[in-house]
Amino acid sequence: MGQTGGVAARDVTGREPREDGTRAEGRATPATVLAPAKLTVSLRIVGVRPDGFHLIEAEMVTVDLFDELSFEAGSSLRVLDEVVGGLGTGDVDAGPGNLVCRALRAAGTTAAVTLRKRIPTRAGLGGGSADAAAVLRWAGAVDPELAVRLGADVPFCVIGGRAAVSGIGEVVRPLPPRPAAYVLLVPPIGVETAACYRAWDELGAAPRTAAHDTSPAGPVNDLEPAALAVLPEMGAWRDALAGATNRRPMLAGSGSTWFVEGTPEELGLQGRSWLEVGGRRAPLVPVRTLGSEGAGRADASATSAGTP
Asked: pLDDT category, 294, cuts 50, 70, 90?
């Protein structure tokens, strides 16, 4: 195998491949790596490439809601359902299409991985991307070009912390940390990212330019109208969070999570774990931002803001 980001791909033993491409035998050293969720606090669409990929300017942060990946010798994936709020793992693929398996292949390595899934799926929180990034960090394969082939959010999730993200996601510029607290509302529904971007195209929205950007100062999410077009019932959950906090919620990425900045106490949500709409409940999840050092921690005893 060649070099990936200046670091040779490793197998679970930590040994580099031989020149003939085979791997030396060795005993695995078990490792546990945390995969923090990402929160997109601002997202502007500034162009569309000829291949259809959308160019963005975004600010992203990592927060203390974690998946957890344990690596041992072997070649398998086991997914444990610990998703916050009891929302379940839904249609998570535990086969070769899972981003964990794809990241292992991209890094040129194998492992038996136990994935404790806590980040809800199709919620705009980058759970699959965070898992792929955790694999790449563990394998020492942190080249952004490799990461972006797995998903647009993966390069940021590899670095973590707070960053300005541009291109299709492959350009990640770290920003100074800004400690912040948020409350997430995670509805029992999900939005496919690809469907959201298709809806943005179909709505005929024009990409922003510096000369014609009339958006208000501060955070904005250009995908919100498209996400609501894909799944109109998300509007009721937004309104429920607005009514409970007297704040205007933001959509996390392509959805379906809504969030407001502040602690539960600041937002008048102390003692509340759920909001209800039409007889269905959605968990309220308080989180705090992490520095980049929090993205790669290997700590089996670590806890998560969203761990049941």
From this structure: low
